Amino acid sequence: MGQRHPSKLILTLLGLLFLVTGCTFTVRIPAYSVRKSERPNLYRGVFHVHSKFSHDSKASLERIIRTAKRAGLDFVFVTDHNFFKDVRTTDHRLLLGLAAYHELKLPLDPLLLFASEISTDSGHVIALGIDEEPPDLWNADQVVNWIRENGGHPIVAHPLSPQKPWRQPFMEGIEGLELFTFSDIYYTRPIKELVLKSAFSFPHQFLRSVVAVRPELFTLWDGLLTKGHAAAFGAVDAHLRWEWFGFAPENFLLYFQSVTTYVHADERSEEKILDGLIRGASFIAFELYGDAQAFTFLAKSGDKVYRSGAVLDSNEEIEWLIESPKNAHIQFLRNGKVLKETDGTTLTLTTQLSGTYRVQVYRDQKLWIVANPIYVESLVEQGA
C-alpha cells in the first residue's frame, strides 16, 4: 500500500475537523439567545434570502421557515435572482411569478415576502413591490426606470462588494441601499482566515470576528440622502450552497443571525411590512451585541410624535429622544455629521433646523444599531 502524501493527509484531517467538530458552520445552536419582538407594531426579520428558485441556492421555502422560527423572526424577505419568470412548484405545474409561491400555501408566521434581485450592467438591484420581471433589460438606468414605472422600488444590493459591486454613480430613482451585506465577508477576507475561524470558533465568536460595516458605506448612504429619501438595509444575502437528501453542511441559521431588521408597521402583513421597509420606518441591529428591540428613536413636534421614515414639515422646535436598551455609545447625526454623542442609555436634544437626522449606536466600539432617518423639511435654512 502506497504511503499517503503528508500534505494531502493534513488537508483531509482539516476537512474532517471542519465538518465534525464544534465549528461555526456545523454547530446548529443560535449564536445568541433569541426572542420574537414583544413590542406592539414592531416586527423583527431578515432581508435578502435566496431560496431554491435562485440558481445559486438550495434552500427550500420550508427550510427558510424553520430557520426563521429558530431565529425568532416575524418575517423573511426572499429576494431570488431574476425570479419572476416561469418556475415549477412541487407538483411540476408551470406558473408565473408569485403564483408559484402562493400555490405553496405558506404559513403567515413567519411571514414570507418576495422580491427579485435583478442583474444589470452596473450591478444588482432588488426590486421591491413588483410581481414581474423587466422585459429583457440589461441597462441599469432602464431597469430602475422600469421598476418605478411599474410601481416598484429599486434598492441597490451589496454596492461595494469586491465580487459584484455597483459600478456607476447612483442615478435618480434609487430608493435605498444595503448598508451591510453578510455575504461580503467571503470576498473581503482571506479564505484561509475564514476557514480557520470557522473551524475553531463557535457561531457567536465567528460573527463577532467578521461582522463590520465599512465606513465607505456610510459615506455612500449619506451621499444618496443628499438627493432625497433613501432607506438603509441590513442584508443577510443567505445562500444554501449544498444540500443532499435534506442534509446541509452549512449553518444556515448563521446568516439569519448576522444582522436583523426591525420594522414599525400597523400589522404584520405583506403590504404593511413592505411599506415600512420602503419608507425606512425601520432600524438595523447586529444583535450579537445585545437584544435591540427596546431601542427608541423619536422626534416630537407640537403634539405629534415621529419615528424613522417620517417627514416633518415644521418650523417649531423639535424634541429628540434616543433610548438604548443597554449602556452604549450613542451618536445622533444630522446630514451625515455627528450633532451630539453620549455614553449611556439616553440622548436628548432640541433643534430647529431642517435636515436628515439619523442614529448610530455602538457597544464595545462595535456597531450595534443603525436607525433610518427622520426627515425635517422646514423653512429654516439648511445649515443655519
Provide an overview of this structure.
The structure is a single chain. The chain is of the alpha+beta class. It folds into two domains: about 40-290, TIM Barrel, CATH 3.20.20.140; about 295-384, Immunoglobulin-like (Sandwich), CATH 2.60.40. Helices cover about 25% and strands about 35% of the residues. It is built from ten helices and 18 strands. The strands form two sheets. It has a 16-stranded mixed sheet that branches. The longest helix has 15 residues, at about 5-20. The radius of gyration is 22 Å and the shape is globular. The relative contact order is 0.13. Residues about 15-25 and about 85-95 have low confidence and may be disordered.
Features of the shown structure:
384 residues; alpha+beta; TIM Barrel; Immunoglobulin-like; 2 domains; 16-stranded mixed beta sheet; two-stranded antiparallel ribbon; 10 helices; 18 strands
Q: Topology of this protein?
A:
Layout: H1 6-20, E1 42-49, H2 61-70, E2 75-81, E3 86-88, E4 94-96, H3 98-102, E5 111-120, E6 123-128, H4 140-149, E7 153-156, E8 176-181, H5 185-188, H6 191-200, H7 203-210, H8 215-225, E9 231-238, H9 252-256, E10 260-264, H10 270-279, E11 282-285, E12 296-301, E13 304-306, E14 311-312, E15 318-334, E16 337-351, E17 355-363, E18 366-376
Parallel strand pairs: 1-2, 1-9, 2-5, 8-9, 14-18
Antiparallel strand pairs: 1-10, 3-4, 5-6, 6-7, 10-11, 11-18, 12-13, 12-15, 15-16, 15-17, 17-18
Helix pairs in contact: 1-6
